[in-house]
Write a structure and sequence with these properties.
alpha/beta; 5-stranded mixed sheet; globular; Rossmann fold
Length: 180
Amino acid sequence: MCGSFCTFSKAIAELKRLKENYNIIPIMSETAYSTDTRFGSAVDFINKIEKITGNKALSSIAETEPIGPEKLCDLVVVAPCTGNTLAKLSNGITDTSVTMAVKSHLRICRPVLLCPATNDALGASAQNIGRLLNTKNIYFVPMRQDDCVNKPKSLVGSFELLPECVESVLKGVQPQPIFS
């Protein structure tokens, strides 16, 4: 989970659904792990996530680096994935727990599913999304404009599609349509 705090409730709802069929190791960016916002306190989110998954939330580079070498995951899902994280992934920057988890997982050629939530997806982040769409083992949850009048460059992944997207990606198939 990255710091798109307004989408945390959607992500947590899908964690509950995914937990029915999968063991989930929660990973939170340092910002998501430590920031209180108008959407809730960091401690409350951490407690909910850990209770649902039954696993400790990983929140540091040191904690997430073993994901690849130790083959801890079949799939890494970044939901929500901010524009900042999209940019870092697109440009090979590994300076957060989430970007390290992705890099570590990709280095053993395993899939990563991104669920964007960014106000600049059709602006500054568009080039990063385009680059990542063309990157092996990177998949996207279908996305849509969430408020085309007030936020014309904003896109958000369809969180409610996460369970079926996970199944699709585990079969090596990009969920379609990418933009709805």
